[in-house]
Amino acid sequence: MSTYAIGLSTDMAIMSFLALAAYLLLLVGRVSFGLQAFFGFGAYAAGIGSAMLNWPLPVAVAFAVGLGALVSAAVAWPTMGLSGLRYAIASLAFAEMARIALSQWVWQVNLGDRLVGPNGVDGFRDIRWVLTNDITDAQYLFICLTALAVCVAAIWYLERRRIGVVMRAMGFDETLAQHMGLNTHHIRVMTAATAGAIAALGGALYAHRTTYIEPAVFEPMLGVHSVGYALIGGLGAPFAPLLGVILDLGLLNAFHDLAQWRMVIFGGLVAIFLRLKPRGLVDETLLAAMRIRGAQR
Amino acid sequence: MSTWLINATQATIDGLIDGGIYAWIGLGLSLSFVTLRRLNLAYGATALFGIYGGLWLHQKWDLPLPVLVVVIVVITLVATAYVELLCFRGRTTVSAQSGPRPAGEIQNAEIVAMAASFAIWMQLEQVAVNLLPRHLQAFPSIAATSEWAIGEIYIRYDRGLLAVMGLLCCWLTAKWLTHSRTGLRFRAATDHSLAARLSGLRVDRVQRHAFYLAGGLSAVAACSVLLLDGQVTPMFGMWMLFKGLVAAWLLGGHSLGSVMGGGLLLGLIESYAQWLLGAQAREFVLYALLFVLLVRQAPVGWKGLTA
What we know:
The structure holds two protein chains of two kinds. Chain A is mainly α.
């Protein structure tokens, strides 16, 4: 595999975490335009853990995931009771608050020859755990893919349990779910916490891949892309959002001449999909048809 | 006068001037939201697209200023029609359909339309940037080079005039909605769309026209702001959307009167935040305010102002 292919695959794997987070929230009937905030928190938290506090990567990532889940649950608690429309705008407003707060945050420690830590709009440099531990690009790709596979498998398993069925039912009809005696608010908050944790995991891996992060990275378009990936890929199964990522980063990146039209094509695709196939390429109908066809054989 | 009092007066005047402009920006967004019950997140992007399209033609053919403004409005209207067609048509509210639909389905339709408009936002913004790739674009300026000084208080009278025009535009639109036949048709289609439909009103067409009107108003407001700023960047679309959203929702967003009050209040809050806490805090306060307002879900009050 060429260095370019490894790099692109790693990028796709990292963006897939955001797509999975958006997918989970879409399952329960919520669109979040603020997942980039948890991606950012994850990146900063893991960076602080490994670069400033000298923690091993797994510990730093676990810290980032925990923080992402906690903050996401705290934000979801007052906002999940809102209508879908208001929730989407509230999530975007929160993400912008987080971005501005990160751009004002300065906390650096002296590590002998250099200062390390968040430095406002100048970002956070020298998150070098991967380099200092001689992890190759291919090995890092393997780490990202393993983490992604675990997440997809966990969601897949979850969806086959009662809680997964309830989550999907809520997305279709909240009133019916409430009628069944389910506390939809609690389920949505738990889902948001999980989505925040997954987005933070992606952010933690992103920070260690690039070694440098800045608040400008976590702009609203990142959140929009994550929702777009899930909407294009589909809401039928947890692997479906990954198709959206492959389509955007893989296919459109493969054609360099299209680089400046990438947003135009991607935005158009999302809008067309929302009109023709609101639940994406791989939706419940397609999966059910495939299951029936499989059974008939 | 003490320094504190001078600064407070200056912040109040600046805030009210900015607030009038915000009210104008929020007017179109509020109009489309009130009539369609759908949030058009491409609101700022359509105006940005119109501005960049107009500037592109201006750079090619050196259009006179009035022609440039007309071209910008026309391009914005075309972009608005595109947004309406792709994101909102066929996704009108429950009573505009042949019969009632389940609440979950309505909410999903709302979210889908909003998400689609967000996708179109990035599309329009990218096309605009591809047309004129430089980050900062010059816009023909008619800004005054001096300002009024009353003692130690300074007033940008050109911006003041713009704020008054903005408030006047909101007030006239509110009057038009309550007194003209077309305005009453808009309101009937919004308030009781099923009854309006049964009375023979083509609700979908009325809503479409309201959407186009909102697009036209946004283009005029955007042109007016830029004529004084003299420059534009791709961030202008997002700026318009957020300022418009907060202005429209600060006092509940139920009427155009609340947009006027919301815009003025937003201007004051931002101006005081900048004075007391700095420029970055001003932006933070904007988003914090929007977040808190949404969480509260209830209007702050002051319903007497409504049209």
